Amino acid sequence: MNFRKSPTVQTLAVFCVVFAVQSLIGLVAQGLATQLFVLHAPVGNNPLSLVLSVYAHGSVGHLFSNALVLVLVGIPVERTTTKWRYHGFFATVGIAAGVSQVVFTSLVTLGTTRPGVLGASGAVFGLFGYLLASNVVADTLLERLPLGARGQLVVLFVLAMGVTLLTASPGVALVAHFTGFVLGALAGRVHLLRTRAETQPSNKWERYG
Q: Where are the alpha helices (DSSP H) in 82-147?
Protein backbone atom coordinates (compact mmCIF):
# COMPACT_ATOMS: atom_id res chain seq x y z
CA MET A 1 0.00 0.00 0.00
CA ASN A 2 1.37 3.39 -1.04
CA PHE A 3 0.51 5.64 1.90
CA ARG A 4 1.21 8.83 -0.03
CA LYS A 5 -1.34 7.90 -2.68
CA SER A 6 -3.92 6.53 -0.25
CA PRO A 7 -7.01 8.80 -0.17
CA THR A 8 -7.73 7.55 3.34
CA VAL A 9 -4.31 8.66 4.56
CA GLN A 10 -4.70 11.92 2.68
CA THR A 11 -8.04 12.51 4.39
CA LEU A 12 -6.44 11.82 7.78
CA ALA A 13 -3.78 14.41 6.95
CA VAL A 14 -6.50 16.93 6.10
CA PHE A 15 -8.15 16.18 9.45
CA CYS A 16 -4.94 17.02 11.27
CA VAL A 17 -4.18 20.17 9.29
CA VAL A 18 -7.71 21.53 9.64
CA PHE A 19 -7.77 20.75 13.36
CA ALA A 20 -4.43 22.50 13.86
CA VAL A 21 -5.58 25.61 12.00
CA GLN A 22 -8.93 25.50 13.78
CA SER A 23 -7.20 25.31 17.17
CA LEU A 24 -4.81 28.18 16.39
CA ILE A 25 -7.61 30.44 15.20
CA GLY A 26 -9.66 29.44 18.24
CA LEU A 27 -6.89 30.64 20.55
CA VAL A 28 -6.98 34.09 18.95
CA ALA A 29 -10.63 34.47 17.95
CA GLN A 30 -13.02 31.74 19.04
CA GLY A 31 -15.94 33.42 17.30
CA LEU A 32 -14.12 33.35 13.96
CA ALA A 33 -13.18 29.69 14.43
CA THR A 34 -16.82 28.83 15.10
CA GLN A 35 -17.95 30.77 12.05
CA LEU A 36 -15.44 29.07 9.77
CA PHE A 37 -15.48 25.48 11.00
CA VAL A 38 -18.99 24.90 12.39
CA LEU A 39 -21.93 24.56 10.00
CA HIS A 40 -24.81 26.64 11.30
CA ALA A 41 -28.31 27.42 10.11
CA PRO A 42 -29.06 28.97 7.74
CA VAL A 43 -26.51 26.89 5.85
CA GLY A 44 -26.13 29.36 2.99
CA ASN A 45 -24.73 32.13 5.19
CA ASN A 46 -21.18 30.79 5.13
CA PRO A 47 -20.52 28.48 2.15
CA LEU A 48 -16.94 27.83 3.28
CA SER A 49 -18.17 26.14 6.44
CA LEU A 50 -20.06 23.60 4.32
CA VAL A 51 -16.73 22.00 3.43
CA LEU A 52 -14.57 22.90 6.42
CA SER A 53 -17.09 21.54 8.92
CA VAL A 54 -16.71 18.07 7.38
CA TYR A 55 -13.00 17.95 8.23
CA ALA A 56 -13.07 19.94 11.49
CA HIS A 57 -13.50 18.34 14.93
CA GLY A 58 -14.51 19.51 18.36
CA SER A 59 -11.70 17.81 20.29
CA VAL A 60 -8.76 15.45 19.97
CA GLY A 61 -10.98 12.58 21.10
CA HIS A 62 -13.57 13.47 18.47
CA LEU A 63 -10.88 13.52 15.77
CA PHE A 64 -9.33 10.25 16.96
CA SER A 65 -12.63 8.34 17.00
CA ASN A 66 -13.51 9.45 13.47
CA ALA A 67 -9.97 8.74 12.27
CA LEU A 68 -10.07 5.22 13.68
CA VAL A 69 -13.32 4.32 11.95
CA LEU A 70 -12.16 6.01 8.76
CA VAL A 71 -9.12 3.74 8.62
CA LEU A 72 -11.27 0.64 9.16
CA VAL A 73 -13.81 1.42 6.44
CA GLY A 74 -11.91 3.77 4.15
CA ILE A 75 -9.06 1.50 3.18
CA PRO A 76 -11.31 -1.31 1.86
CA VAL A 77 -13.39 1.22 -0.10
CA GLU A 78 -10.39 2.97 -1.64
CA ARG A 79 -9.22 -0.30 -3.17
CA THR A 80 -12.25 -0.33 -5.47
CA THR A 81 -12.18 3.26 -6.67
CA THR A 82 -10.00 6.20 -7.69
CA LYS A 83 -8.55 8.89 -5.44
CA TRP A 84 -10.75 11.64 -6.83
CA ARG A 85 -13.97 9.63 -6.66
CA TYR A 86 -13.16 8.78 -3.06
CA HIS A 87 -12.52 12.39 -2.06
CA GLY A 88 -15.55 13.64 -3.99
CA PHE A 89 -17.79 11.06 -2.36
CA PHE A 90 -16.44 11.81 1.11
CA ALA A 91 -16.91 15.56 0.82
CA THR A 92 -20.34 15.34 -0.84
CA VAL A 93 -21.78 12.88 1.65
CA GLY A 94 -20.24 14.81 4.55
CA ILE A 95 -21.83 18.06 3.39
CA ALA A 96 -25.21 16.43 2.82
CA ALA A 97 -25.09 14.81 6.26
CA GLY A 98 -24.20 18.08 7.97
CA VAL A 99 -26.90 20.02 6.16
CA SER A 100 -29.51 17.39 7.02
CA GLN A 101 -28.57 17.59 10.72
CA VAL A 102 -28.81 21.39 10.81
CA VAL A 103 -32.04 21.57 8.82
CA PHE A 104 -33.70 18.81 10.84
CA THR A 105 -32.77 20.42 14.16
CA SER A 106 -34.02 23.80 12.94
CA LEU A 107 -37.36 22.28 11.94
CA VAL A 108 -37.78 20.38 15.20
CA THR A 109 -37.01 23.45 17.31
CA LEU A 110 -39.14 25.67 15.04
CA GLY A 111 -36.17 27.93 14.44
CA THR A 112 -35.81 28.88 18.11
CA THR A 113 -32.21 27.61 18.19
CA ARG A 114 -29.22 28.07 15.89
CA PRO A 115 -27.96 24.50 15.57
CA GLY A 116 -24.40 23.78 14.56
CA VAL A 117 -22.54 20.65 13.49
CA LEU A 118 -18.95 19.72 12.72
CA GLY A 119 -17.02 16.52 12.23
CA ALA A 120 -16.48 13.81 9.65
CA SER A 121 -18.79 11.19 11.15
CA GLY A 122 -21.50 11.69 8.50
CA ALA A 123 -18.96 11.14 5.72
CA VAL A 124 -17.39 8.21 7.57
CA PHE A 125 -20.83 6.65 7.97
CA GLY A 126 -21.23 7.13 4.23
CA LEU A 127 -18.12 5.02 3.62
CA PHE A 128 -19.38 2.47 6.15
CA GLY A 129 -22.75 2.22 4.42
CA TYR A 130 -21.06 1.94 1.05
CA LEU A 131 -18.78 -0.85 2.28
CA LEU A 132 -21.64 -2.86 3.77
CA ALA A 133 -23.94 -2.49 0.77
CA SER A 134 -21.42 -3.01 -2.03
CA ASN A 135 -19.62 -6.18 -0.94
CA VAL A 136 -20.19 -9.61 -2.47
CA VAL A 137 -22.05 -10.95 0.58
CA ALA A 138 -24.57 -8.10 0.48
CA ASP A 139 -24.99 -8.48 -3.28
CA THR A 140 -25.72 -12.19 -2.93
CA LEU A 141 -27.98 -11.91 0.11
CA LEU A 142 -30.12 -9.03 -1.15
CA GLU A 143 -30.50 -10.53 -4.61
CA ARG A 144 -31.70 -13.85 -3.14
CA LEU A 145 -34.24 -12.32 -0.77
CA PRO A 146 -37.72 -12.27 -2.37
CA LEU A 147 -38.20 -8.57 -1.66
CA GLY A 148 -37.81 -6.77 -4.95
CA ALA A 149 -35.82 -3.57 -5.35
CA ARG A 150 -38.13 -1.48 -3.17
CA GLY A 151 -38.07 -4.11 -0.44
CA GLN A 152 -34.30 -4.09 -0.51
CA LEU A 153 -34.38 -0.32 -0.06
CA VAL A 154 -36.53 -0.79 3.03
CA VAL A 155 -33.97 -3.25 4.41
CA LEU A 156 -31.20 -0.69 3.88
CA PHE A 157 -33.20 2.02 5.65
CA VAL A 158 -33.92 -0.27 8.61
CA LEU A 159 -30.24 -1.20 8.78
CA ALA A 160 -29.32 2.49 8.69
CA MET A 161 -31.69 3.20 11.57
CA GLY A 162 -30.24 0.36 13.63
CA VAL A 163 -26.63 1.42 13.04
CA THR A 164 -27.53 5.02 13.84
CA LEU A 165 -29.22 4.13 17.12
CA LEU A 166 -26.14 2.20 18.20
CA THR A 167 -24.22 5.48 18.17
CA ALA A 168 -26.83 7.40 20.16
CA SER A 169 -25.43 9.52 22.99
CA PRO A 170 -25.69 13.17 24.07
CA GLY A 171 -24.20 15.55 21.54
CA VAL A 172 -24.02 13.00 18.72
CA ALA A 173 -25.39 14.12 15.34
CA LEU A 174 -27.70 11.16 14.76
CA VAL A 175 -29.42 12.66 11.73
CA ALA A 176 -26.04 13.20 10.09
CA HIS A 177 -25.08 9.60 10.85
CA PHE A 178 -28.34 8.29 9.41
CA THR A 179 -28.11 10.45 6.29
CA GLY A 180 -24.50 9.50 5.67
CA PHE A 181 -25.18 5.79 6.06
CA VAL A 182 -28.25 5.87 3.79
CA LEU A 183 -26.44 7.79 1.05
CA GLY A 184 -23.47 5.45 1.33
CA ALA A 185 -25.64 2.34 1.22
CA LEU A 186 -27.57 3.56 -1.81
CA ALA A 187 -24.30 4.39 -3.56
CA GLY A 188 -22.96 0.99 -2.59
CA ARG A 189 -25.90 -0.86 -4.09
CA VAL A 190 -25.18 0.71 -7.49
CA HIS A 191 -21.39 0.45 -6.99
CA LEU A 192 -21.08 4.16 -7.62
CA LEU A 193 -17.39 4.39 -6.84
CA ARG A 194 -16.21 1.41 -8.82
CA THR A 195 -14.62 1.95 -12.20
CA ARG A 196 -14.38 -1.51 -13.69
CA ALA A 197 -17.07 -2.45 -16.20
CA GLU A 198 -17.70 -5.84 -14.57
CA THR A 199 -18.77 -4.17 -11.31
CA GLN A 200 -21.53 -2.02 -12.79
CA PRO A 201 -25.01 -2.29 -11.17
CA SER A 202 -27.65 -4.66 -12.40
CA ASN A 203 -30.52 -3.42 -14.55
CA LYS A 204 -32.90 -3.87 -11.64
CA TRP A 205 -31.11 -1.31 -9.53
CA GLU A 206 -30.63 1.01 -12.49
CA ARG A 207 -34.42 1.19 -12.89
CA TYR A 208 -35.01 2.09 -9.26
CA GLY A 209 -31.83 4.11 -8.70
A: 83-108, 121-134, 136-144
